[in-house]
Amino acid sequence: MTEELKDGTVKANELQDHGSLEMESNEIEKSKVGIMRAVVEAEDPTAKEMDDFMIRRFLRARDQDIEKASNLFLKYLRWRRAFVPNGSISTSEIPNELAHDKLFMQGLDKKGCPIVVCFGGRHRQNNIEELRRFVVYSLDKICSRMPGGQEKFVCIGDLEGWRYSNSDIRGYLAALSILQDCFPERLGKLFIVHAPYVFMTIWKVVYPFIDSKTKKKIIFVENKNLRSTLLNDIDESQLPDAYGGQLPLIPIQDA
After folding, report:
1. Separate counts of helices (H) and strands (E) for the chain
2. pLDDT tens across 242-252, in order?
3. For the sheet containing 218-221, what is the strand order?
4. What is the pTM for the complete model shown?
């Protein structure tokens, strides 16, 4: 057998083995989803209303640990009933946050993930409960606009013009807690762009509260590489016009 044939056979076997392992992993995860569903439904019958994809996201967020994932999921269900008793947050409940005009949604990346743009320099410290409602309103809106079969979104966090007056550690941590504990495995990637040097002082305070999975999704982009970095993940036709693309930004409430 020639070296070329040997190499081809080895690669084919490796691909076959990889495919078999992936199938086995998927079957194990599917089994765990079923077990977790039984556990959470026994504790909280309203869990029956949630689909397997949601249960799977909580399971993945806790590295396939059924007990930890179940506890987080049950905590989420209790929180949701208490914090969003009407099932959704209305714009009339978040007028001050919407007035900041800081969150937009437009386009899809190359994987089909919705693109969200947040202008951190427009954020102002406000009533913490209204901020929490705004975060839930926004994440609900983003998730409802995801194409079929898609579970994640991509965010461009634009810090141009950010100053200490925009600093709101309490608000940042509140938003982070909701994202990680109540909407796990929803963030696909976060590009932080136009980050001023003064922001890094606040970043050092917030960073320890970010879980390891989320940290891997955060990318600081240098100004000189901004457009090329975004175009690696987003086609120009889907890139917001604020970054040289073709789509105008749409406020989150109008998306």
Report:
1. 9, 5
2. 999 999 999 99
3. 103-108, 114-119, 153-158, 187-193, 218-221
4. 0.87
CB neighbour list of residue 99: distance below 8 Å, 6 or more residues apart: none
Residues 235 and 141 in one domain: yes
Q: Which domain range does residue 73 map to?
A: 3-83
Question: What CATH number does residue 48 fall under?
Answer: 1.10.8
E-assigned strand segments in 159-193: 187-193
Q: What angle do CA 137, 66, 18 make, to 5 degrees?
A: 100
- Phi first, then psi: give them for residue 103, nearest 5 degrees: -125, 130
Give per-residue burial for 41-65: e unless 16+ CB within 10 Å, then b.
eeebeebeebeeebbbbbbbbbebe
How far is Cα 180 from Cα 153, in angstroms, rounded to an integer? Answer: 14
Q: Which residue, 56, 83, 110, sits at the end of a domain?
A: 83
- Give residue-wise pLDDT tens across range 43-81: 999 999 999 999 999 999 999 999 999 999 999 999 999
Closest C-alpha to 68, from 188, 207, 209, 184: 184
Q: Say how far apart CA 197 and CA 157 lie, in whole Å.
A: 15
Answer yes or no: do 193 and 67 share one domain: no
146 with 58, same domain: the answer is: no
Q: HSE of 92 in the Cβ direction (CA atoms, 13 Å)?
A: 0
**Nearest alpha-carbon partner for 243 in 188, 193, 187, 190:** 193
CA–CA dist 124, 137 (Å, integer): 18
